[in-house]
Design the sequence.
């Protein structure tokens, strides 16, 4: 029963990532013809992430009170409706989609809560690591479907390519609605949430200082939690390059088209799946996780910076992405595993929701930064991403009181 529910959750994640990644290669078509197209793409991302500052803590609180299943359903329906908005291939549609999808995008805080709900302690790192591998696999399959669809139908007009790919995304998101409605509840004892508690969650999400105060309160109950959240905030600033990458490779010196972008993400995702599965399946629970985060971040700083100097060489781009998969791409799963250990059945959704809101704030800020830097020079954002990764290493280094229970033999 445990394995069946876990596989069901993995299937929902897999489809959700495919739906999000399948449209990545065609997003530049929504901003073509506009001045500073990279800035418009950044604005769309900022809208998507900014709305989550309110939605993520609220949905996390609701999942603690009413269960994970209703949030899965709400997120799936929200994604389906948001994807329908993309059918007219124009800038306004893309911005409307980003805003709408952000309203119900509390899925991943709820996903991590649900996986933690049903995972034995000795399998927690493995199960969350597999979640990361599935997300990577989705990033392979999504662009692959887009590239295959364009190739098989011999679509040459960029707008027509985008229209067909979006139609496929709508169909897949509809399938995910069905899967979400069939999911069984994972929360051991959902109850209810008072209206006052919901109001408090909304107020806290609108005020960074109150979110930090709430996290400090949680840190007293779960020592080390706040440091993990701040570390993930810094990591979010670094991996903001995921949102910038399509604009960089399509509008910069590499001048990659839809098919080239699809093939690139297929390689990136496929390699990430293999490395993540091996790392989290066999190593992550046998090592000192904090020390691993430190060294992976430290080695990853020059790797991130190297993207900005790749020039027109696609060979070097593939070399860099290979090292990327072996270093800081593994950090997210390690932080999530450590954080999951610092939650309980009563506050798991709230903690993951607050964490997602803080990530949303970091993503919103880093999106504005890389959008402005890209106007000056398309290479400059990678200096910012590398600096954020350096902060990850510094934060982990500051936490010297490291519980020995984090290493599981």
Sequence:
């Amino acid at each position: 029963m445990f394995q069946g529910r876990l596989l069901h959750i993995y299937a929902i994640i897999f489809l959700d990532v495919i739906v999000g990644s399948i449209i990545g290669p065609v997003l530049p078509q929504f901003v073509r013809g506009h001045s500073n197209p990279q800035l418009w793409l950044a604005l769309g991302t900022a809208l998507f992430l900014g709305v989550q500052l309110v939605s993520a803590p609220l949905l996390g609180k609701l999942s603690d009170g009413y269960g994970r299943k209703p949030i899965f359903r709400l997120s799936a329906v929200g994604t389906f409706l948001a994807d329908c908005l993309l059918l007219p291939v124009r800038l306004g549609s893309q911005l409307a989609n980003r805003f709408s999808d952000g309203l119900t995008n509390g899925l991943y805080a709820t996903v991590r809560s649900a996986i933690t709900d049903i995972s034995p302690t000795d399998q927690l790192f493995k199960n969350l690591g597999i979640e990361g591998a599935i997300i990577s696999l989705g990033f392979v399959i999504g662009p692959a479907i887009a590239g295959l669809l364009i190739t098989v139908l011999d679509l040459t007009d960029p707008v027509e390519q985008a229209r067909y790919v979006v139609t496929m995304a709508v169909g897949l998101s509809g399938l995910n609605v069905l899967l979400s409605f069939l999911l069984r509840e994972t929360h051991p004892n959902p109850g209810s949430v008072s209206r006052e508690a919901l109001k408090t969650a909304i107020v806290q999400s609108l005020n960074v200082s109150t979110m930090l105060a709430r996290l400090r309160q949680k840190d007293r109950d779960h020592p080390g939690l706040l440091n993990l959240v701040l570390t993930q905030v810094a990591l979010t600033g670094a991996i903001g390059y995921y949102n910038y990458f399509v604009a960089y490779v399509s509008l910069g010196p590499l001048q990659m088209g839809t098919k080239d972008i699809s093939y690139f993400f297929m390689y990136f995702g496929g390699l990430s799946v293999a490395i993540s599965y091996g790392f989290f399946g066999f190593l992550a629970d046998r090592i000192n996780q904090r020390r691993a985060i430190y060294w992976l971040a430290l080695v990853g700083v020059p790797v991130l910076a190297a993207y900005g100097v790749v020039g027109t060489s696609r060979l070097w781009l593939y070399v860099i992405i290979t090292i990327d998969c072996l270093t800081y791409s593994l950090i997210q799963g390690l932080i999530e595993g450590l954080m999951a250990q610092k939650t309980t059945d009563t506050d798991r959704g709230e903690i993951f929701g607050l964490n997602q809101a803080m990530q949303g704030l970091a993503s919103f800020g880093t999106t504005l930064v890389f959008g402005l830097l890209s106007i000056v020079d398309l290479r400059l954002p990678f200096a910012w991403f590398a600096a954020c990764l350096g902060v990850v290493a510094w934060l982990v280094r500051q936490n010297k009181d490291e519980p020995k229970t984090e290493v599981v033999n």
Summary: Residues 204 and 213 are 9 Å apart (CA to CA). The mean pLDDT is 82. The first helix runs from residue 2 to 22.
